[in-house]
Amino acid sequence: MDIAAITGTADAEGPVLSKADAAKKKLTKDLDSFLVLLTSQLKNQDPLSPMDSTEFTNQLVQFAQVEQQINSNENLTKLIGLTQQNIVTNTVNYIGKTVEAASNKIPLQGGVAKAAYGLSEDAFSTAIIIRNASGDIVYSAAGNKTQGVHPLEWNGKDSTGKQLPDGNYEIQVTALSSTNEPIETYTTAFGKVTGVTSKDGNTMLVMGKLGVPVDKVLSVTNS
């Protein structure tokens, strides 16, 4: 995920709590209207044929149940928010460390990008392609054809030898069998963690301009 799309720390509580406040206000308004109507009916009821209290009692019980549910949802939202804050606080320890994460994007940091790719079985041919943010191919090479995981280090230069700016680049590894059938591949990205943020409730580790969910991290090293 491009860190440019992550605008600060997401407010995990705000939107949901706003809905809870709106629901409370609506419930209060509905209850007030119901009580006004009930009071009017009680004043104007026929003394010889009083109203059956069962119906409005059931409605009052329903109001109480709705209010209880709203309060429970609000408390749960606050608990989730605190949990997310704790996760972000704990992941601060990642800053300055190098992590490997499952990703089809790699961060070019200091003119160098490190990645790894894996093949589920031996291949007849393997191709590696790296694209820039516009989708243009800036690097291509033949890859290792044997089953397993293989390292990849790119010096950030395009086919003309021009040094490209640091940022996010997409990596694509394609492997084919001798019968031209596709072979399953996967890619991982290495990068130095420069920050921690949150997006849509997910804690993200920031590597340069690349944000990866913390649950995608496969390894952590000091170098």
How would you summarize the topology of this molecule?
Blueprint: H1 14-43, H2 53-91, E1 98-102, E2 105-108, E3 113-119, E4 125-131, E5 137-142, E6 148-154, E7 167-176, E8 182-183, E9 185-192, E10 195-199, E11 202-207, E12 210-213, E13 217-221
How does this model look, in words?
The chain has helices spanning 14-43, 53-91; strands spanning 98-102, 105-108, 113-119, 125-131, 137-142, 148-154, 167-176, 182-183, 185-192, 195-199, 202-207, 210-213, 217-221. The chain is α+β, with helices and mostly antiparallel strands and 223 residues long. The strands form three sheets. A five-stranded antiparallel beta sheet has the order 6-3-9-1-13, with no helix packed on it. Helix 1 (14-43) packs antiparallel against helix 2 (53-91). It is elongated, with a radius of gyration of 29 Å.
CATH-assigned fold name of the largest domain: Immunoglobulin-like
Oligomer: single chain
Large-scale geometry: elongated
**What is the total number of structural domains?**
2
Question: Which whole number gives the mean pLDDT?
Answer: 79
Report, as a whole number of angstroms, the end-to-end distance: 23 Å
**CATH class membership of the largest domain:** Mainly Beta
Content of β-strand: 25-35%
Q: Fraction of residues in helices? A: 25-40%
Radius of gyration: 29 Å
CATH architecture of the largest domain: Sandwich
Q: How is the biggest beta sheet arranged? A: 5 strands, antiparallel
